[in-house]
Amino acid sequence: MNDNQYLNRLFKDYYSKNRNNLPVIELFDQREFGFIPWDKEIKMIRHIGFRKINDLVKYLTDSGPRHVYSSGTLYSQPEIPDMGGKGYRGCDLIIDIDVDHFYTPCKEDHDYWQCRECGKTGRGMVKKCPKCKAFKIKTLAWICDECLNVAKEEIIKLVNNFLIPDFGIEVNKFKVAFSGHRGYHLKIGSEKMRPLTSGERREIADYVSGENISFDILGLKERGGNIFGFSKINIGWAQKIVSKIEEILSKPDIYIKQLLLDKNKFNLGKNLTESFLKSKDKFLSIIKDENRNSWAIEGFGINTWNTFLTGIVHEIGVEIDTPVTIDIHRLIRYPGSLHGKTGFKVQEILLNELTDFNPLDEAEEKLDPIIFESKVKTTQKLEILEQKVPMTQIKGEKYGPYSKGEIIEVPHHIAIFLLCKEVAKSI
């Protein structure tokens, strides 16, 4: 039995033991289902419909797929292969936040890359090789408490700062789930949202992320050598920006300096940062005064203000995966299913549970996505396949880092995680 067959058997066993615990999503019989099996020759099996949850459970216990998906879309005939013949009935609004798609400082510690052209290696997040400029990059993306907490904070920011106050969406319409790997999904099953076109969904995506904001339209002007900003009495993004500036200006100088010099955020440079700090008290008094909007800081022309405000927007906006939101035929992971890259459960969470939720060390058993932890503390021997495997901290215990060829003995749930990540093999 090879490792994929072993994992397939474990997944089947999980679905069999939890046949009565799998959630039933809203309008279940109008959803399309898709599956990725353990056989790598088969990319995806989709265009499947189930009338009852028991039919899905039987499929899962019989086949134990590596990944399980259902559509945000409603169809009259979800099993029809032709998209035009399915009978489209609308689509839930889906927002995906995945730390694969944006920078977090912890990636400098646990994400590895190797150029397939010149062989150069490094840590962190790169789009192309810094040596030969090739785009063929092999990556090993990892997870830790820090990056998963960043993703969680983005979901909280999305709900509390945008969807509830700006769109008036009721709390009971939100369905939030830990993806089982590197992020969270949010689904809004609202009759107001389901008819939206892809273009209208893009407008929502742009609004919550801050993409394509025009500072000129919001009120930033240059007249007679003077810069005029915008006021907090305005609504929407103008108000959010001024409030965020006020919040930053109230921080200690050392915090502001680090923020403005950060190359992944503002990247203003030493001279402009020092000029900003010298003027911060005066600037704070100006933006607090609704009758004043002359923004005067030495060295800050219209281009510098645009750079500064772009950094502010980045602080406010939510890091979402826009293609997921605008795709009205998108499949997302089914709640309660297993993620084939970790062995973790796709865990639904209520909004009032989200703040304290910690997927890698969850105290509350009903919310714990690490379902292969053995109560009798069994261990397994593995051989490491990757050149480098980062340190992993799960359930408060640290494992690794490891190097290629190393023989290790780890608890059952860690072995499943490493096998699913395909960085080790059983021996």
Automatic annotation (TrEMBL):
The keyword Metal-binding applies. One of its GO terms (biological process) is DNA replication, synthesis of primer. InterPro entries: DNA_primase_S (IPR002755), DNA_primase_ssu_PriS (IPR023639). Keywords: DNA replication, DNA-directed RNA polymerase, Magnesium, Metal-binding, Nucleotidyltransferase, Primosome, Transcription, Transferase. One of its GO terms (cellular component) is DNA-directed RNA polymerase complex. One of its GO terms (molecular function) is DNA-directed RNA polymerase activity. PANTHER family: DNA PRIMASE SMALL SUBUNIT. Belongs to the eukaryotic-type primase small subunit family. HAMAP family: DNA_primase_sml_arc (MF_00700). This is DNA primase small subunit PriS.
